[in-house]
Amino acid sequence: MPGLGFGFAYDRFWSESDLRGTIGVSLNLPLNLGRLAAREREAQAALAKAEAERLAVRDRIEQRIEEASASLGLNLHDVEIMRDAVVPASERSLKAIRAAYEANRSDFLTLLSATRDLAKARLELYEAQVMAHEAQAELKRALAADATSPVREDQR
Predict the structure, then answer these.
(1) Are strands 21-28 and 3-10 parallel, antiparallel or unpaired?
(2) Rounded distance, CA 28 to CA 106, Å?
(3) What is residue 6's three-state secondary structure?
(4) What is the CB-side half-sphere exposure of residue 37 using CA atoms within 13 A?
């Protein structure tokens, strides 16, 4: 910024009294105004880029949380269906076929097939529980990423 300055000084150590007092004038003329403006624009562009990257990270974290939450809900629903419907139905079926086999109204192959179906239903229940635990862990990781993110909701 251009500027004009005046100054006065007194130096008592000069042996001649005429040299003790001095008056000064200064003139400040900036010669590189364009370069300073370019640096300012560059800094503003870098700031805008950093803000865009921050918001992109925030969006990715929010998407990850939404996907993990949806996956957890789906897997918990699968566990509920397997636990409350499929496995009990397979157990009832096996019980009925076993009673029929003991009364000589069913063959061994049918009993074996029903036993296999119950084992398969239980295995699918365990697999659904494992997937639900994995989805829960992924949701916790996503929430932890959100908690450690420098971008908070109140800053938006």
Answers:
(1) antiparallel
(2) 108
(3) strand
(4) 6
